[in-house]
TrEMBL record, chains C, D:
Pathway: Pyrimidine metabolism; UMP biosynthesis via de novo pathway
GO biological process, one term: 'de novo' UMP biosynthetic process
Name the record gives this protein: Dihydroorotate dehydrogenase
Domain of life: Bacteria
Enzyme class: oxidoreductase
Gene assigned in the entry: pyrD
Taxonomic source organism: Thalassospira mesophila
Transmembrane segments: none
Family in the record: Belongs to the dihydroorotate dehydrogenase family. Type 1 subfamily.
Record EC number: 1.3.-.-
Chief site of localization: cytoplasm
Sites where the protein binds FMN: S21, K43, T44, N124, K162, G214, G240, G241, G262, T263
Amino acid sequence: MTVAVVDVTPGIVPANEQVFETECQVISNSPVNNDYRLLVLAAPAEILNCTPGQFFHLQCPVREGLQPYLRRPMSIYGYFPEKGELQFLYKIAGTGTAALATLAPGEPLNVVGPLGQGFDIRDDWQNLLLLARGVGLATLAPLALEAHKRGKTLTAICSARSPEMLMSIDYFRDLGANIITVTDSEETSGLENLEKLIEGLIATNGIDAFYTCGSNRLLKLLQTLGARHNISGQIALEQQMACGLGMCQCCVRSFQSPTGIVHKRVCKEGPVFDLQEAMGW
Amino acid sequence: MTVAVVDVTPGIVPANEQVFETECQVISNSPVNNDYRLLVLAAPAEILNCTPGQFFHLQCPVREGLQPYLRRPMSIYGYFPEKGELQFLYKIAGTGTAALATLAPGEPLNVVGPLGQGFDIRDDWQNLLLLARGVGLATLAPLALEAHKRGKTLTAICSARSPEMLMSIDYFRDLGANIITVTDSEETSGLENLEKLIEGLIATNGIDAFYTCGSNRLLKLLQTLGARHNISGQIALEQQMACGLGMCQCCVRSFQSPTGIVHKRVCKEGPVFDLQEAMGW
Amino acid sequence: MVDLSVQIGDLRLKNPIMPASGTFSEDLATMLDINTLGALVTKTITHGIRQGNPTPRVCEVAGSMLNSIGIPSKGVDYFRNVTVPYYQAYDSPLVVSISGNTTDEFAQLCEAVSVPGVAAIEVNISCPNIEEDGKAFAMRPSSTLDVMRKLRAATDLPLWAKLTPNTGETSDVARAAQEGGADALVVCNTMLAMSIDVQSRKPRLGNLMGGLSGPSLKPIALRMAYQCAKAVDIPVIGCGGISTTEDVLEYLIAGASAVQVGTATFINPTAMIRIIAELEAYMVAYNFSKMTDIINSVRDEEAADTVVFMETAP
Amino acid sequence: MVDLSVQIGDLRLKNPIMPASGTFSEDLATMLDINTLGALVTKTITHGIRQGNPTPRVCEVAGSMLNSIGIPSKGVDYFRNVTVPYYQAYDSPLVVSISGNTTDEFAQLCEAVSVPGVAAIEVNISCPNIEEDGKAFAMRPSSTLDVMRKLRAATDLPLWAKLTPNTGETSDVARAAQEGGADALVVCNTMLAMSIDVQSRKPRLGNLMGGLSGPSLKPIALRMAYQCAKAVDIPVIGCGGISTTEDVLEYLIAGASAVQVGTATFINPTAMIRIIAELEAYMVAYNFSKMTDIINSVRDEEAADTVVFMETAP
Ligand SMILES: Cc1cc2nc3c(=O)[nH]c(=O)nc-3n(C[C@H](O)[C@H](O)[C@H](O)COP(=O)(O)OP(=O)(O)OC[C@H]3O[C@@H](n4cnc5c(N)ncnc54)[C@H](O)[C@@H]3O)c2cc1C
Ligand SMILES: Cc1cc2nc3c(=O)[nH]c(=O)nc-3n(C[C@H](O)[C@H](O)[C@H](O)COP(=O)(O)OP(=O)(O)OC[C@H]3O[C@@H](n4cnc5c(N)ncnc54)[C@H](O)[C@@H]3O)c2cc1C
Ligand SMILES: Cc1cc2nc3c(=O)[nH]c(=O)nc-3n(C[C@H](O)[C@H](O)[C@H](O)COP(=O)(O)O)c2cc1C
Ligand SMILES: Cc1cc2nc3c(=O)[nH]c(=O)nc-3n(C[C@H](O)[C@H](O)[C@H](O)COP(=O)(O)O)c2cc1C
Ligand code: FES
Ligand code: FES
């Protein structure tokens, strides 16, 4: 397998010509359920010129016994220029997110962003399918809002370990989305069931685009269905990051391209990529 | 000048056969004046078996932008086994003490001690003279209390930049000490005036022992007066420390000894040394 | 009036602050006016196209990071056709970092990048030399001298030699680089290090080992910069663990004429412009008018020469 | 039942945790029962009486420290007459660290400390060798081989060779130490570093430079321990920046058979006993019965050999 280098020219238009390093103030930071927390920041309007799917790079605070060094990338869960709010939905995974969880209202948080390429909603796409699990919902939430604003028809399949772990269902419902929940505990989240479900949706209303993130399993499923029915799709991916700005080249992943396998930077060409170009891991 | 090595045998009796690493709780931590703060800790009785002049080695907290690594040595300002309290009087000098100043009541502080050799009050010494400036008062305060308990006659010369900066005067007064204050702003703290003052005290009441700490200037003065009138004395010294326990040998200072100049560890053979053996710096 | 400019051989930089190779690209222009920087240093490029190392390429260690990016490179043609024209818009001098697997390949590339628009060439001789069992050129004085001579012959542009902290012969390597024709030394690259994930028992980097950069590297790199400044007459450019203005001053006082900021930009992308502003404020506050008032002002007179050149710590 | 004991050559240690030379003395007995430690390692001693370096001998750097204690020593007679008898009260084996300025002086001392009560001799070959311009013996394979052969001839006790991270030839030096007769390697000593006080412009250490120890050193020392474990067949004792049980596990997984804890004891004097307890708890929790279940269990199979022996980071 030959791996070529990034074939990205500096000529590429960055999603944002200007990125900001800003000290925001914590408005609230509280648990959503056992696993996830919602962080709400007061942020200046200039940094809220975001696209769904973009992320910020957060300088998590330093605490006794928790001393993160690098920034941590975090998808934008919500951005509201009108009220000057920026939101993140996160799960405690290690040092950085544990430190993040200690932030109290009124404390500062230094953020860099908005970063990366967000989701694309083409004008000729009407019926959108969102498929997400866990923290993936954080990434897809602003996409749902944007789709709603643009008058798209939205179906969201939300997957979780158990019904109590399902998040943001009300959020999606308020946006008029057709919600389908699947869970491990109810044994509805398996690939076979999902495939049947989605095939059903395609057959009844038709679907113009898939949106998903994170999971290798879901990627494969949607790639198969997309290829089978010629449906476009996008996926948001993760990778270890240092700079978040495209400079260090540590966050590359491999992608299919007409010329072979290429490396692209998740922070710069991504985190949102074409579904069919993405490769499993 | 030949410098020999520490001539201390492991046979030396440590002031405390047992030293403790203990997590104490902050009771209060507030400014005494513009420069100094008083830290009061709730401490178990076992670590309060102290001698005046000993010190603790404090693990200052880690804060955003203040990340001390080594411990910081701090003289015991007060130890009260009856009420389970341990006190320190300190000045913000850099990272560690700045971090210390952020401690709020209820927070933990890890301390190691009591450490080192304290002051000696010989039974045949009756009239004691304490000469201290600035944070030196912190070191001499418990000595004054102990001397008072033992029925000694105490004179304390307290030196400071200006009258407002004088500290612990009431503390010394309550112990029945004869207080003499000298300040730079009143131009009473000069060596010449001090010498006159002390010569006066020697002439009137007589003095059996000098106690001082820190300053090179005061050391020289008391060495001269001590030699002139054959008065014993002790001085508490400072030096950069790593272990605080006598293991690393980083805290040595040079001392006069019958066999020439020797190195002694401030943390172990000190911090209190014989006045005449101490060398200026 | 405060003058922040510094002289590096024939090149005058408007201030002593520049990015370190591999931690900067045109992408930083989204965050700040890169024209305020003393120079613009590219990621190391190789002659041909290279892919770099397997992922994960980065991991965090106590207060610092490791990387094993390797040298993904789009090759020399891309550099000449795209990168050089891009930087024409800026007047801060463009410094291209290059590397090669063999002396000849290295020299060829050196010649190939000697084009208008390039102000200086930083030669990353801290990279493995396949002619010497993969040992970096800058590990030994002999291989350093050898490659520097060939590189010197290949270009008329200023040559900055970037040294490695992995050698036990810092002063000798520095002198060899000078003898071989370097116009300045960049001191230094990352230190070989490792981290293992205790849960999975796997090395945290796809490449097993990688380079330590950030605050942990500073005392080591500062020591090297100091040793090099004592050992050679050409300017030393300090690099390693700089994140504050105090860090910059430490390097300048130790003898460096300029500095490169690497990892700190990942933590605070605007770090370099903040440092430039603070450096100016510092000079005003302390009544310095020019950088040479600070450079090499270390008060080490009390110490013996033998100590200065010691190569081990007891 | 969990068995924490480890084998270092002919010596069986009750657990793999012991203090690092220079960071331990009988004074620690005021804080904990030193008999719970795997071994007791003395500060390096020299044959004659020495004073050590000028003060300040220690300073703090980001998350770590530098020291330039030097080797203040009360000499070999004091060691034999006072130190050895003192440690008779403990059954943890006594390891004496020694050093010499010349090969012969070193060998003489090695013989002189080979007395009953001493279980092993740690030879600090990271100290300057005055016959080689002050370069430490362990900087080069040749001087390492040379001194180890003489030391080997001078004693029948187990010989542990303590290596320096300041060399660029780690694997070769490790092999030379083994060839010269070492029974184990201690990897590693401090890394030469420097810090300058920006206000006074003076080096923060009286000796100008000193050794970096503590968390910043860990990724470097761990890499060396891993390289050495690959390079030799004798046991490796990891040392550098260990402060948690996870750090210990990282070294053991990388191939170390035991570890030494240094600077961490300054921060938490009771660190070693806490680590021993946590290590036992870890083994119970993960169902390990003996230390060899952990030692050298690194999952590096995917990586090429060339990578393992690389001596530089690009
Ligand atoms: C573009 C992007 C968007 C993301 N959005 C979200 C989100 O909305 N909510 C959320 O909970 N998480 C999100 N993640 C994952 C999140 O960044 C990691 O959970 C977090 O970095 C873990 O840091 P830690 O210190 O808590 O964990 P540790 O395991 O201690 O982290 C160690 C190192 O690994 C890196 N790392 C660990 N996990 C990941 C990961 N999955 N992706 C990238 N780097 C990782 C960390 O950044 C850090 O440098 C996102 C990741 C990316 C790349
Ligand atoms: C036995 C002893 C008793 C002391 N008692 C008191 C006291 O009661 N009240 C008080 O305010 N101060 C006291 N000091 C001084 C106090 O330890 C220092 O002010 C403190 O360590 C400064 O730390 P920092 O991080 O704030 O300053 P920084 O300057 O940032 O410290 C940097 C390093 O230098 C060391 N250092 C700096 N100043 C001193 C010093 N004077 N002595 C030893 N090490 C130093 C620090 O411990 C630290 O390792 C005492 C010192 C000793 C040795
Ligand atoms: C992600 C990353 C990539 C790097 N790539 C290169 C490189 O291509 N060429 C080079 O000479 N140095 C490279 N370096 C080393 C830096 O230029 C610098 O020498 C080193 O990081 C020390 O400086 P710092 O501590 O300020 O980061 C890289 C460093 C990092 C962190
Ligand atoms: C204060 C101090 C004194 C030291 N003295 C010696 C010594 O005499 N001999 C020696 O071989 N190593 C000496 N070392 C090095 C330690 O044994 C150890 O190799 C090093 O500190 C790395 O381990 P650490 O990071 O756990 O401290 C000393 C280290 C320190 C911090
Ligand atoms: S994180 Fe640096 S290029 Fe993506
Ligand atoms: S501080 Fe370690 S011996 Fe005194």
